[in-house]
Design goal:
Elements (H helix, E strand, L loop, with lengths): L1 E6 L2 H7 L5 E7 L2 H4 L5 H13 L3 E8 L7 H7 L1 H5 L3 E5 L2 H10 L3 E4 L1 E11 L2 E6 L15 H4 L26 H11 L31 H8 L1
Parallel strand pairs: 2-3, 2-4, 4-5
Antiparallel strand pairs: 1-6, 6-7
Length: 226
């Protein structure tokens, strides 16, 4: 599972960096490299574009996994070049940008947009896999998420617009509920379609600020009870 990103328009980036004469560049060796938005080639290309725009790039690096805590060590190792910059332009997913911002004392700007959590279907072709909604229905839908696969996010069967197993939005999109039906049929579970899924509880998703969870140490709890 990867964070799928796309590069921001160069004009938008230059506008954000208007007050910065000297810039340090950071890319990522995993998701952004796979999406070709922040690998070594893209970072070097950005370096040339910024130079053409009158900026001085004081240095650059591609962190193996920019969202990892080891980013802190990478920033320390390149402290001299970073100190010489007015800001840091981060060519990673949103998580990587936030990680750099957490450990850097410079202004941090994002060079890419994070689109979704997804998988690579074929080389260079990515598809969303999870909405991270906090209320998973995959057990009821044969492992196929109707919230991301169905253009209308339907939870209780298809609409009336699909034709020959294709979504009415586009003939290139498979009808999610046709896929769900076929898989349930193949495993002898069609009777489960008669169960009505209640309206989605979106309170488990984005409302109420950033989501947080604490994993209880069950082993420690068991020992204390003994």
């Amino acid at each position: 599972m990867k964070s799928i990103t796309r590069s921001k328009p160069l004009e938008e980036i230059k506008q954000r960096l208007a007050k910065c004469r000297q810039v340090y560049l950071i890319g990522c060796g995993t998701c952004a490299t796979m999406c070709r938005t922040g690998g070594k080639s893209e970072v070097l290309d950005m370096k040339q574009k910024l130079a053409a725009a009158g900026k001085k790039v004081t240095g650059w690096m591609v962190i193996p996994t920019a969202c990892d805590v080891l980013t802190r060590d990478a920033l320390k190792e390149n402290a001299k070049e970073i100190a010489a910059a007015d800001c840091i332009l981060v060519m990673t997913c949103a998580f990587g940008v936030q990680t750099v911002a957490r450990y850097a004392e410079k202004s941090v700007y994002a060079a890419v947009d994070t689109l979704f959590i997804g998988t690579e279907e074929t080389p260079g072709e990515f598809i969303e896999a999870c909405l991270q909604c906090g209320g998973c229905v995959l057990g009821q839908t044969a492992g196929i998420c109707p919230l991301v696969r169905c253009a209308k996010g339907l939870l209780n069967g298809p609409c009336g617009g699909s034709v020959d197993g294709k979504c009415e939005v586009s003939p290139d999109i498979a009808c999610a509920w046709q896929m769900i039906y076929d898989r349930l049929a193949a495993t002898g579970r069609l009777d489960e379609l008669e169960e009505i899924e209640p309206a989605k509880d979106w309170s488990t998703s984005l409302s109420g600020g950033p989501r947080q969870i604490t994993i209880e140490d069950t082993e420690e709890k068991t020992e204390s009870q003994d």
